[in-house]
Amino acid sequence: MSIKRHRKATVFGTLTRLLAAALAGLAAGALFAPDPPRQRETASGEPLPLVPVSEPLPLMPAGTEQAPSDEAAGMGVIELDSPRLTVSIDGAPCAMELEEYLVGVVAGEMSAASCPEALKAQAVAARTFTALHMAGKAACKSGCTVCSDPFCCQAYLTDAELHARWGDAYPKYSEAIRSAVEETRGLVAVYGGELINALYHASSGHATESSEAVFANALPYLVSVDSPEGDSGAVSVQEFGAEEAAGRLAAAFPKSNIKGPLSEADIEVLRLTPSGRADRVRVGETEVSGMELRLALGLKSTAFTVEFTREGAVRFTCIGYGHGVGMSQLGANDMAAAGADFARILAHYYTGTELYLLKYADAPG
Hints:
Helix content: 25-40%
Low-confidence stretches: 1-42, 44-72
């Protein structure tokens, strides 16, 4: 597939305070209801249990996929061959239009109760991530354009799954998601005239992470920025028995030579990233990355503290949820609640980017 570029258009408070606020929110039954609690991060993340898939979302009429003309909108253009793509859903390939696909992605990736401008920002990020695959600049392990495995691509929910998730609220939430996709139809984020890798995640705490700190690939638009989540930043506490923790770490890191119950002498954060996340950690006799430790123990993020309780447990307190790179969904929602529109949200989290329109070579006229 080809990409053509046309003319441009300019388009951690403290852990104690965050933990107290989060616990207060939990006691009040708040913190991002009414959708079920998130099980994963996005465009790279945590497992999302899916209802058996039966059909894609029949939400966008065929033939309506072309974005407004670049001449009329005064925007730069990214040209792709076609708006059609194949999505591997539980291993079965399914052909659909990009805008149709995005409704299922936005619904699967973000709470439908989020602010409208945050949902629009999510729609643009998801469209950009998908367009990069459609352009052949990124590949899915399934052999299709993209898949519904969030570890590889993005979550995707069918209409039947959304009925099951939302119940009587389906009409309200379906309209919110459809509107976010439709009102940003064709818009993508670019840097230097090229589609960006629009990574995103659930929550970053007080600041996002730079791409090189997680993926070893420095990208100028994925740098650490403040994330205005305030006291709403997601905080999680995970405890392990000392024997369990030792067993999991010994299995993940054989060179650690950890034996018996985990002790304070067995684990030490050696270095933090500029955003305050664990960069390098000593585990027994070996040194690992913060991300490797996170994956070994199933922690919500690498922004953690560790303590040993009197009862013999090992307690990790994490701020944020996900890899921390790119757009924080919780931060985007807080920005929207404070009055920011989707373009401002995207410009904040993807440094130096602009909005372009997609145009398709096989479109009529």
